[in-house]
From TrEMBL:
It comes from the Bacteria. This is Uncharacterized protein. Residues 1-30, 47-67 are annotated as: Disordered. Residues 1-11 have a biased composition (Basic and acidic residues).
Amino acid sequence: MTHRPLDEQSRTVRPHPAEPLWNRPSDPDQVDPAVLGALLHRHGWQRRGGAPGRYGRWTPPGPGGSGTSLLVPESRAFPDCDDLIGEALLALARSGSPSARDVLVGLTVPGDEIHWWRDVPTGPVGAAPWDVEDQLRTAARRMLLAAALATRARLGYYGARHRRPAAASLEHVLIGAATGGRELTAFVPVATGRPLAVRLHQALYAAREAIDYQRATGGMDAFDTAVEAGVSHELTEALVALVRGSSGARIAVAWAPAAGVPEGGATPAEPVEFSPGDLPALREAGARYLREEPSVPVRITGAVVRLRRSGPRGEGTVRLRVLAGAEVPHVRMTLDEESYRIAGHAHLVGLPIKVHGRLESRGGFRRLAAASGVTPVQVDDAERDRLMKSLQENLDFFEEACGGD
């Protein structure tokens, strides 16, 4: 039986709330003309005339935009405001301009936008190698995950800690289409994701300042204080992945016009730039965070999902699915013969166990060192039935519990 790695847990991906609706015009009476104008401007539409203070005529970006235009009132005081907005929304839904979709998404679900730009070489007619776009998407997702982790705790290195809830918080983030591997936009709903956008915004500025300090003085002290702003091993690794193979990269956060600028958010939020010359400092900082993160004393309650030892007696290795006590999904530990026996018996009767130890940073906080005090934990019948069902679904347990490697 093939097992998925710990950091690739299978789960159903829920669609972004805007995805089924982005190409359906919103109700005109629910659209703020000022917000529509701000979104058009943000996504490159040009205002080409109109009566100041009354309405504007907008055309899409690019050389082919002159044949299309939208009339957008500047306020609801303008006569026939709903009719004009309705016509503008319908034209956006039918437009072939990529920016039209971005505008409609911003209207459907008010959200902050995170933009990435990579300066990469291109081939004929602006083409780029197929893996360039994948590199951009991978780096962007790692950066969003690092920001999500930082909304839950300020640590230099997370490993497996907090990863499950952080990954779940990205389910409603919508990623736009990458442009030749050079540009990418993420739409982060204000209702559920604004703390993530704010934390990423602050962490990027703190990382930029720490790099400048290191390059000017040679000292790494600024990276220590930057942890409080959200800089971590995970963020530095994401920045390395973004910049590596390019001649430079920029990231900017644009706040949702309907929600305004959050506390702690700069306006306008200028892009933060990183270059290949920043890579040595970023790599050194990432290694420093990984090296200096201490082990954590914990008291974990978990269900035994795997037992293994080389013979019928002696110490053995146990894997737990963590139920309480640590923000990690699973841990492994080595137990002496008596503790291994207790863990095996608890598993066979459908009981979790409680154990003390130190959660080690080495290996991503997935190993419990100096494990002791293994005791079964009493649970109600419903929970025991659920654990027993889990046992039956993992038939490979019997082979590993009874056999060797």
